Amino acid sequence: MNRLAEATSPYLLQHADNPVDWWPWCEEAFAEARRRDVPVIISVGYAACHWCHVMAHESFEDESVAALMNADFVSVKVDREERPDVDAVYMTATQAMTGQGGWPMTVVATPDGSPFFCGTYFPRPNFVRLLQSVTSAWRDQRDAVLQQGAAVVEAIGGAQAVGGLTAPLTADLLDAAAAQLAEEYDETNGGFGGAPKFPPHMNLLFLLRHHQRTGSARSLEIARHTSEAMARGGIYDQLAGGFARYSVDGHWTVPHFEKMLYDNALLLRSYTQLWRLTGDRLARRIARDTARFLADELHRPGEGFASALDADTQGVEGLTYVWTPTQLVEVLGEEDGRFAADLFGVTESGNFEHGTSVLRLARDVDDADPAVRRRWQEVVGRLLVARDARPQPARDDKVVAAWNGLAITAIAEFLQVAALYANPDDEDANLMDGVAIVADGALRDTAEHLATVHLVDGRLRRVSRDKVVGEPAGVLEDYGCVAEAFCALHQLTGEGRWLELAGRLLDVALDRFAAPDGGFYDTADDAERLVTRPADPTDNATPSGRSAIVAALVAYAALTGETRYREAAETALGTVAPIVARHARFTGYAATVGEALLSGPYEIAVVTDQPAGGPLLAAAHRYAPPGAVIVAGRPDQPGVPLLADRPMVDGRPTAYACRGFVCERPVTEVDDLVGQLGGR
Questions:
Q1: E strands along 461-560, which residues?
Q2: Residue 154: is its pLDDT beyond 80?
């Protein structure tokens, strides 16, 4: 009997009609394995995963394969996005046993959950041989199988060790991390490493902050070149905005077409910060259109942001997105069709499959003549109308707390910079204003959903769908990302409620997730017990739980003046410092937070009765050092600690700039504030 029909996870629901007798992850499944004395197949994936779909079609929809699984195993299907704790434990085992990992992940475990065989995608013949071999080994070599499982559990327990305080994350370590990134940088294509190539959003955030602190032209150039290369490549949707998960090649041309919420949230932050620091037109456009993508394509009113758009459309990768020269002419006519083919690099031979092309920006348009820009935008609009008439990829509608927190923080930063650079004379000022309005609405709507639906009895739940919260408990990254988001929303709105909620979440994290030696576990002390308690300190596709909680602790301490939260952040960050020095590419968010701590971070209060904040607030946002917190409002505004006991001087808007709780004199002139912030 397949037991997935009542699941809230879209990924599990994709398998609800399989002939496999799937169980969701639950104790009852393992009890059934003990009762039948059979091993457990743990199959882990997610809804937008292309190779998960392939393996499902080849094996899990096949009656003969299902018969083997049903006869000799208990089969458990896990959504890695819903249960990142389960995924983390078994991914560590998979990497330890095979040297690599990925999804779909296929694990065979004893009835107590100890893994003894791990892999990823298996073609049907290989999977059938695996099932037969494991069945034989379980029957005839049980002792060896159990010993293997015990050895793997011992190994992954060591790999997931929390680690104690080693050293502060100093300027020397952060400089060394930036130098390491510079050595590994792809001078030709931007980014780091070869194919497949992932957008290094957290490394970009770190490098931009490193540039601010040190003035490093090299760090800025790496961030700027990589951002431009991605924005011109096929990994970026040249028509609707938004980034795909990664590029299958080393030069950003052909994407793996799924679009993830977390990638786009983190990239929105990096492009927004590049725009803030440089005024770059391309960065401005990409930030605007990524914010629009989040608000238009992923936001669900009354719920929050959906997790992803699928890699496939009707089982075919890229079906929605790719073009031929003939198709361009059919939509645009002969002359504009040729213009579009030249602009987007669409050729007869193509850069994808069957002579089709993924659109990339082959010409510079952001600084082109206004007539060229208008023609480009008109062509984009007509192509998008035609593309919208095609079959569309499925959307994974579950709301993940951590990823929604990332989106809130990114949009809050975007809105602040958009207000900073607002200019009614810009040719696209109306478009920017429209994006800001819908993005602001999506941000507030999402925050309300997290606060009222995901918070249950003072604890955070990981996922919801259709306004119904799921059972999985929030993990450390949920608490960190949502608390940081609430701190960002407090700064944007001046509402004390969000700061209070952030404090509650951080108190739970300190009470339930903290380790005695200063680090953090990824699961709470009262969470479901797995074969080992995960505690991954590295940043991968998203910030690690440890980096996320440290970022929130730093922001909250700066906003409230409560030093114990800063002390907890410094101690936890110290456990990551050696990894930052050795593996900069996998500690980008930790290094980003380290730059904030090294900078102060600054606490900037603008006391004013002007609703929009005025020139002082604009200067604060323009010249804010790395990780600065900024609030504006009336003197002693309720719920805003940074405005307490800070009057306006001579009745004029006044700025108070502090660093590490030590304050400069209050100023009423923009130049004086800029000087205090180290502006050039």
A1: 463-465, 468-469
A2: no
